[in-house]
Amino acid sequence: MLPFKIGFFTYYGTVGILTYLLPLYLKHIGFSPSQIGIVACSRSLGALVGGTVFSMWFFMLAKFKYLMRMICGLLLLFILPVGMVSPSPKDDCIKNMTSGLVDDLAFSDRSWMFRYDEVTLMFIAFSILVFCADVFALSYLTALQGGCMVQLGKENSKDYGKIRAWGAIAQSTEFLIIGAIVSSTVTRSKICGGWSVAADYHYMFYFIIWLSVVGIINSGYIPIEAPTHKESNSAASPMTQTLTSLKTFKNISWLVVQFCRSMFFSATHGFLTWHVENIGATPFLIGVLNGLATFSQFISFLVATKMIDVCGHALVIVADLVSQVGRFLAFALISNPDYILPLLAVEGLMFGGSWSATATYLSNQVPEGSQTEVQGVFQTVHTTGKAVGFLFSGYLTQALGAPAMFTIFTAVACGALILFISAHIVKTERRVL
């Protein structure tokens, strides 16, 4: 299983940088919260296309392993230009506020500091580039995760978390290193009577290069095999059979909750770093925050099998939703960035267990050999939720501010928790669609 472990290491190392640090990079080159939300949404839409369409390519990929290497190369080709250009700062001091003073909000949204035409052009170009990059990224992940499930089989599916943990190792390590490097580049300058703090996040693209190179080399050794579907009297395709198996109230509640949890992921990792920087966090502290969250994920993935055995799949999800409610409420109220540390540790611990519980639960609900199809459904729901979450949280952050956005997501998390518990109280397996 070593090629799968390296595959998760390189994939989540690359995607982790784009998910956690790209919003900060875009903030520092003048993108507004709504623009950052749309760029992140474009990534999720690309992932949606990649995860959905790729299920149809699976058998071809099983025959031509070098397609995996091509996918890694194309991912690198589309993402590198994002780190190569920056807009020009304005020469004069333009105040776009009603008062003559620059307030904190003006520095949380830096778009007014840069030339509008250049930022707009980059916004359009970046949206297209990240869309294309994530088409190939999710194609790679769907093959990797589906192939991993096929190799494990149903009897060993709970060991998936131990393999997926390698992705968390990559993220926790790189965030600490990048945070330390970027902290050494921090500069303070006086603009319009206020102090602006800037940092150079271009270094993160060097990590993307070496991770992609390792991924390209490793891809040829991943033992992707076409799954063997059991003979059935039904003329329905494997995907149709998979969707039919999921059409119960309980199974649909899992998908709906996963959609909500993906929205929460977008709100947290798209704009929490934005918020904590605004309340005084340094780049190194942000690196520690992200590193702690992903290291906690690593621990969680390692013990996910035990968590599921002891608590059951459903109770793991309930615990995660309860923690989501508490964390979002705390994010809205806390004004000291140091207090975010334990909250992100809890987030990481909950994420690994809930992700493994959902992946293995859905895998066990479908016919033998349909693991690739159900992982495609899982990734489709996940990426759709992320797209909606980025758009929603970006709009709310720009319109109301990050604390109000987190308060609204607290209510959404409460609704998801009530739905999931209700679905498991109702004792029925009747198909509802």
Protein model, in words:
With 433 residues, the chain is mainly α. It has a single domain, classed as Up-down Bundle (Growth Hormone, Chain: A). The chain contains 15 helices and two strands. It has helices spanning 2-20, 22-28, 33-63, 66-79, 104-108, 116-152, 160-183, 204-219, 238-245, 249-278, 283-311, 313-333, 340-364, 371-400, 402-425, and strands spanning 187-191, 194-198. The chain has a two-stranded antiparallel ribbon with strand order 1-2. Helix 1 crosses helix 7. The longest helix has 37 residues, at 116-152. It starts with a helix and ends in an 8-residue tail after the last helix.
Q: How are the strands ordered across the major sheet? A: 1-2
CATH superfamily: MFS general substrate transporter like domains
User: What's the structural domain tally?
Assistant: 1
CATH topology term: Growth Hormone, Chain: A
Rg value: 22 Å
First-last Cα distance: 38 Å
CATH C-level label: Mainly Alpha
Based on secondary structure, the structural category is mainly alpha
- How would you characterize the largest beta sheet? 2 strands, antiparallel
Percent of sequence in beta strands: under 5%
Mean model confidence by pLDDT: 76
- List the total number of helices: 15
Poorly predicted runs are 94-107, 428-433
Q: Just name the CATH architecture.
A: Up-down Bundle
List the helices and strands in order.
Answer: HHHHHHHEEHHHHHHHH
Beta strand count: 2
Share of helix, binned:
over 70%
Shape: globular
Pick out its properties.
433 residues, mainly alpha, Growth Hormone, Chain: A, two-stranded antiparallel ribbon, disordered C terminus
